[in-house]
Amino acid sequence: MKSDSETSERIKDAKQGEVLVGIGVSPGVVIGPVLVVVAKVIQVVERDIPLEEIEAEISKFEDALIETRRQIQEIQENLGVRTVKGDAGIFDAHLMVLDDATFISSVISGIKTKKKNVELIVKEAADGYAGALASVEDNYIRERIADIRDVIRRIIRNLSGDTAPSREELQHKHIIVARDLAPSETASLRKDMVIGFATDLGSPTSHTAVMARALEIPAIVGLREITEKVATGDEVLIDGNKGIVIFRPTPKQLEEYGRVAEARKNIERGLTSLKSEPAETADGHRIVLSANIGQASEVESVIKYGAQGVGLFRTEYLYLSKGTIVSEEEQAEVYKKVAATLAPRPVIIRTLDLGGDKFLPGAELPAETNPFLGCRSIRLSLLQPKHFKGQLRAILRASVHGNVKIMYPMISSAGEVVRANELLEEAKGELAAMGVPFQKDIEVGAMVEIPAAALTADVIAKHVKFFSLGTNDLIQYTIAVDRGNERVAYLYEPTHPAVLKLIQMTIDAGHRNGIWVGVCGEMAADPLMTPLLLGMGVDELSVSSAVVPLVKDAVRCVRHSGAKELAKIALSCKSAVEVLSHCRRMMNEVAPEILELV
Ligand code: PEP
Ligand code: MG
């Protein structure tokens, strides 16, 4: 990385065994030497340009734009081959900067009026561009500043004849540590030489996170000060599952991780062979094991890890990653791609779940004192029927390309389902009038994630074909504990007796009414909870793709009769801790190796 970045040799202050905590955005555990990558400040010298050379300076700029476009397209193609198409799309933002008429004309007129060298004018224009965006209080927009700086660096490098950083420069395996990583830096790194990422900045939606997941490289973002604490050559362990970095792990930590890693490897080895096996208990009771996804590019993982379909497609991520409303056309394309790639596997597309903590920049919604109890999710959709019907039409259009189902989030009463279904019928009518084909009897389900829905599940069940328990929200609304507030995290207990009662009520009501009931909240992804949920009677579990093998293993180790016994005991327990200890005991009996991992 020498031309674009330099390794850092500052005195660092981490102590052996020190644990830094960030956000794990791509699972896996690796240990190795660090390469600290610090973006080099672009040095641009100022030169006067004589009048007769102005045109040549402008041509130089145009040539640099062409070359930059060629390089970005090359990276896109490369990524398209190595990973999945959606991630190569990140560079569309770069291409948009190259096409931006305001940017191009400001550089050309700057060269003409100031009579200075093109590198200086480009840098000034870029600073103005990024400066305007920096004042916007929105994470998505701020992440776009990184895109602009990245592409401008590339233009200036091309203007000055500097070459792009070579992928050959990393000669042995490293964990990349950086303040943040520009998408093109991430994409240019040699996958076989990079075994992990750890960055100061970033969120689960940042480009590094998206790419790390697509490349299946363990990654942790949001570590705040890792670049201050470690130096190139230091050995660190990164655990992308837990979101922690251990600086020069002590023998004890290594031993502990060695055991966990060994257990993981053993399980993973065994799990590979489970891929085509059913999610069936030792005494022959089958359930469906599906995957949760947030974007189309994740379908590869759905297949790779042997999920039986998609149990939850969080469509709001399309909006959040784009930072704006996504047209019916664009949505239909994405849903079609997912449905067609996974056909005949079912794909449950959840309608928009915006609001709460998921806000769309520029949506101009009135500020709310208590957004989690406010106009979020299906409430917002029903208030904006025109937009909601656009999403329903997009899903319907995709429905002929696979096995698509619709799911409404945050249902609190049967009335909301009835109204949503009316709009669905209108959407069908509109498509039919246009002669657009769709699956006429497309199945509709409701998420049960509000206690009111669980308590009236019998009534709601009459209007849907399935329920999916959103335990993330169900727990927060039942115990009145904000799922994102670490100060009350100790109260956030999936095994709280009140939560279990609501889950059981929902499953029973669903079955009484002849519909299936799944769980798509994080509770489904904890293998300790697998026997309990099986025993309570769930028909489907939906978890992130990479967790599918582990949960399948837990299903296959347990006997349904034993699970039912466990559920009976759990429902009579007086505390969450008591329930948890019974779950541990059961796992210890049937699959003690799984206990090592949780
Ligand atoms: C849930 O609440 O459990 C759920 C799956 O939905 P989300 O996490 O998207 O709110
Ligand atoms: Mg939810």
Protein architecture, described:
With 598 residues, this protein is α/β, with parallel strands linked by helices. It folds into three domains: 2-40 and 173-270, Phosphohistidine domain (Glucose Oxidase, domain 1, 3-Layer(bba) Sandwich), CATH 3.50.30; 53-160, Enzyme I, Chain A, domain 2 (Orthogonal Bundle); 289-546, Phosphoenolpyruvate-binding domains (TIM Barrel, Alpha-Beta Barrel), CATH 3.20.20. Helices cover 48% and strands 14% of the residues. The chain has 25 helices and 17 strands. Strands 1, 2, 3, 4, 5, 6, 7, 8 and 9 form a nine-stranded mixed beta sheet that branches. An eight-stranded parallel barrel has the order 10-11-12-13-14-15-16-17, surrounded by six helices. Strand 6, helix 8 and strand 7 (219-221) form a beta-alpha-beta unit. Helix 5 (118-134) runs antiparallel to helix 6 and helix 10 crosses helix 22 (548-557). The longest helix is centred in the N-terminal third of the chain and has 29 residues, at 54-82. Magnesium ion binds at residues 409, 449, 470, 472-473. Phosphoenolpyruvate binds at residues 312, 314, 353, 449, 470-473, 520-521.
